[in-house]
């Protein structure tokens, strides 16, 4: 899989991509992530990539020309399954969407900054608009990282335990059960007896019950 991320603040993406599982997934060639600095596609003396909106209003809007140039260059090199614009007014990101995106071959993620991007980019280039939640971030970079992280960990081989992505919260519509490790007692708090016994059937039953209780308590909307 290949993900091209277009950003006006590429440094924001550096650390999340160069640590831990995302770093290893790239080293193992499971995914190729290329960050493109939008400013390098501005050709005027001051490398301007944003301007005030027509009609007035607060904030700056990313200009269309650098974005079109960058995306069209990438499109001339390969075919993209989706060109995603991350924005608070996009469709809500969830595990199902992460599963779906993890099967794609080439993706572009376009990060907005300041007040947004010129509408013509959204109409002509963008194929999918995604929000990571009902709140407004200062830019799309963190959202792009959330989506990339959720997608990449699903690629077979990205996380050590092949099973664990399948048993995540949300994969089958329930939240995850509590987890414990050694010691069996810490500051008077004991690990539930059933987990110490080694009876797999009983452990499964306990986990299922805990998952239902947690989901019922925290996310009644998921219990329908
Ligand atoms: N950009 C600003 N806020 C965002 C959000 N909630 N999701 C995705 N991109 C964003």
Key words describing this protein structure:
single chain, 224 residues, alpha/beta, Alpha/beta knot, Trp Operon Repressor, Chain A, 2 domains, 5-stranded parallel β-sheet, 3-stranded mixed β-sheet, elongated, binds adenine
Question: How would you sum up this structure, described in words?
Answer:
The protein is α/β, with parallel strands linked by helices and 224 residues long. The protein folds into 2 domains: 2-152, SPOUT methyltransferase, trefoil knot domain (Alpha/beta knot, 3-Layer(aba) Sandwich); 169-223, tRNA(m1g37)methyltransferase, domain 2 (Trp Operon Repressor, Chain A). 33% of the residues lie in helices and 19% in strands. The chain is built from 8 helices and 10 strands. The protein has a 5-stranded parallel sheet with strand order 2-1-6-5-8. Strand 5, helix 4 (95-101) and strand 6 (106-111) form a beta-alpha-beta unit. The two termini are 35 Å apart. The model has no long low-confidence stretch (mean pLDDT 95). Bound molecules: adenine. Residues 86-88, 112, 131-133, 135-137, 140, 143 line the site of adenine (ADE).
Would you kindly provide a brief summary of this structure?
The chain has 224 residues and is α/β, with parallel strands linked by helices.
Please outline the helices and strands.
Elements: E1 2-7, H1 14-17, H2 20-27, E2 32-37, E3 50-51, E4 61-62, H3 64-77, E5 82-92, H4 95-101, E6 106-111, E7 116-117, H5 119-124, E8 128-131, H6 141-152, E9 185-186, E10 189-190, H7 193-197, H8 200-218
Parallel strand pairs: 1-2, 1-6, 4-7, 5-6, 5-8
Antiparallel strand pairs: 3-4, 9-10
